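Kindly go through one protein, given below as sequence and tokens. The question is how this chain folds according to its tokens.

***
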Amino acid sequence: MYLVFLSESGLAGTGANDPSQPHHIHAGLLVHENQYISMAGEYDALVRRHFGDRPGSNGVPARLNPRHIYQGTGAFRSWRPGQRAELIQDCLSILIRRETPLLVSYISKDEFTTASADEDNSLYGHTDPSRLAFSRFLLALTMFLDENVMSQMNPDDIMQSAWEVNDYAMLMAGAESPSISAALAEFLDAESDTVSPNIYDDLIVAPPETCVGGQLASICAYVVRRWLQQPGAAHGYFDALRDGRVIQVIYPYQFD
């Protein structure tokens, strides 16, 4: 079974013209259940190495806020840029060593606002950008899982549609999200005729303070959002995830 750790980025700026957050991002790390224990152990050792103690104890933050690390604010106000860069790279290296798949979907807030203002597009006036972006994430997840199954099948089984699903996906969110829940319900309802559905219909809430996968997903979501904001600039962390075969797909929501 895959544990799909979800994170969002770009939530703070709801205005379409917010220059710092023009996109709403959904990111999901696909961690096979057999790998999670070793990943969590490596993360714990990483935190102890950088902070001197385990997460959440003796002044060590329980959660690594990617914005604070990147900008040198909050708990990282006194950290030198080199220290912060090393911490981010160490976190990403956990994923790169395992080639942990990262799926990303996003939506342009400016395009959403424009589409919502069009009376002919009544759909967009009754939803929100997070919900639309997550619908694309679910589509990308389904295609990824299907391709994974097909890669293990012989051509005859594929031609006969003899699908046997061995790995299911369980969605793990950092908090309750009406947008995610609504998009998931709509997607599963549309896929109700699928012979072998591969996504569980429950959304599990795993607070990032106690969930290593969620913390790593939030760092990835932040890195991708900054790349989307200025794709022509240098982005060493994004390049590391891409070249390390972590980033599998970045799926935009396209308006009609």
The domain at 2-252 is CATH 3.30.420.10 (Nucleotidyltransferase; domain 5).
